[in-house]
Design goal:
By secondary structure, the chain is an all-beta fold. The protein has one domain. Helices cover 0% and strands 29% of the residues. A four-stranded antiparallel β-sheet has the order 2-1-5-6, with no helix packed on it. Strand 3 and strand 4 form a beta hairpin. It is elongated and about 65 Å long. The N and C termini lie far apart (49 Å).
Length: 98
Amino acid sequence: MSESLETTATTPASAFTVTYDGVTQPTPSGLSVSGSAVTLDLVNPPDNSQVVKVSYTQPSSAGDRMRDLATPAENETPSFGPEAVTNNTPDAVPSRSR
C-alpha cells in the first residue's frame, strides 16, 4: 500500500495472521499505524533467518476495517495475504564465557 491509512479505525490485531516459515504464530498483541505502514506487536519475535508472512482478513464491522485517507471516499483495505514482509530481527549471537 502506498496511501496513508486512517489512524482512527479500531482495527483489531486479530484481523492479522502472522506465520514464520509457514507456522501460524499467536495473534499479535497490538498494532499501530503511521502513514501507509502498519506495525504489529508480535508475541514472539521471529529468528532473523525465518520467512515472515502476514495476512489481513477484513473485519465484518465497517468501523474496524483498515482504510486509506483518499477523498472523496475512503477506500477500505481488502483482505490479502499471505504476503512476505521484511524480517528485520537482528542476528542474535550467543555470548561465550571465557
